[in-house]
Amino acid sequence: MTKKLVTTAIYYPNAKPHLGYAYELILSDAIVRFHKTLKKEDTFFLTGADEHGQKIADKAKAENKTEQQLVDEFAEVYKNFETKIGIGYDRFIRTTDLDHEKVCKELWIKIYEAGDLYQKEYVGLYCVGCESFKTQKDLNEKGECSDHLKKPTELKEKNWFFKLSKYQEFLNQKIESGELKIIPDSKKKEILSFINSGLEDISFSRSKAVLSWGIEVPNDPTQVMYVWCDALTNYYTGGKDIWKNANTLHVVGKDILRFHAAFWPAMLKSAGLTLPLEILVHGHILSNGQKMSKSLGNTVDPEEVIEKYNSEVLRYFMLKNISPFDDGDFTWERLKDLYNADLANGLGNLVSRVVKLCEKHLPHLTSLYKGEEQLESAHKEFYDFMKDYDVMNAMNYIWKLISETDSYMQSNQPFKVIKVDEKAGKEMLEILRSQVYTIANLLSPFMPETSQKIKEIIKENKMPEKPLFPRYE
Ligand code: MSP
Question: Whose CA is nearest to atom 14 of ligand 1?
Answer without folding.
Answer: 9
